[in-house]
Amino acid sequence: MTVTKEEQEVECQAQIAGQNHLLSARGLCKTFRDEAVLDDVDFDIDAGEVVVIIGRSGSGKSTLLRAVAGLTEPEAGDVCLNGRLVRRNGERTPEWEQGASQVGMIFQSYTLWPHMDVMSNLTLAPRKVLNMGRAEARERAITALGEVGMGSYCDAQVSQLSGGQRQRVAIARALMMRPKLLLCDEITSALDPPVAAEVLGVLTRLKDEEGLAIALVTHDMAFAAKAADRVMFFSHGKVKVNATPKEAFEQCEVEELRQFVDAVR
Ligand code: ADP
Ligand code: MG
């Protein structure tokens, strides 16, 4: 029996879920050295939602974000992004480029080019990748830097910025591509608590003012409790808890999560 393209699409769960969500991933699997680092993971995020991902080191949090961003190729799984089926049975679809361009990712260690000024860090990729003109790229950069409170640092050298300032510039650089979803992997782990709070404050402002969806891996339980719409607890490549912060932190019956929260507090 031949299955028509339409029938195939209807049976794709990620696509069905993607009609309600900005991002829907279904059945993501990734194995490293015979270990299931992502073990049949489902992950949804809505426009303007902040999802905080917590879990022990090595539980698969970074791999999940990297698989969504396409920095790692999952062996299985479907992903639907803003209505486009971008991955099916682990493979990128022809819609991949269009969908993935709406996702930005930021990492713990500074990934800016230290020998360049802030403006060049922001404009280089759009000019090369999108062939954007110099004036338009500069204009976008000024807006993006303004959004992260770094408007007066256009001409500063990256090497002269503090850690918190660099992470704000890294956020601005991700904003250059006008993403709908920002994936943040322990972006404040190297920062002192007050500076970390400032950087996280930038993210909540972007959510509130721009409607950006944010998936954030952090050990900052205070931020998770205060700013998350949803908390996902990861363990051995599986989502063990997916709940509101109140449910996750105050009402949760999952002993493993309680132990984890006690350990990081
Ligand atoms: P987390 O971010 O929760 O600390 P990761 O997703 O980084 O966890 O890693 C989960 C597991 O996958 C770890 O055991 C790690 O060693 C392994 N792993 C991650 N990336 C790779 C890789 N590129 N090659 C081999 N093993 C990897
Ligand atoms: Mg990690």
Automatic annotation (TrEMBL):
- Domain (ABC transporter) spans 23-261
Tagged with keyword Nucleotidyltransferase: no
Q: Which Pfam families match?
A: ABC_tran
Under which name does UniProt file this protein?
Answer: Amino acid ABC transporter ATP-binding protein
What start-end ranges are recorded for coiled-coil regions in this protein? none
Q: Which UniProt keywords apply?
A: ATP-binding, Cell membrane, Membrane, Nucleotide-binding, Transport
Query: Recorded GO terms, molecular function?
Result: ATP binding
The organism's lineage? Bacteria, Bacillati, Actinomycetota, Actinomycetes, Micrococcales
Q: Where in the cell is it found?
A: Cell membrane
Similarity comment text for this entry = Belongs to the ABC transporter superfamily.
Question: Would I find Nucleus among this entry's keywords?
Answer: no
Q: Which SUPFAM superfamilies match?
A: P-loop containing nucleoside triphosphate hydrolases (SSF52540)
Organism per entry: Sinomonas terrae
Q: How does it sit in the membrane?
A: Peripheral membrane protein
- The organism's superkingdom is given as Bacteria
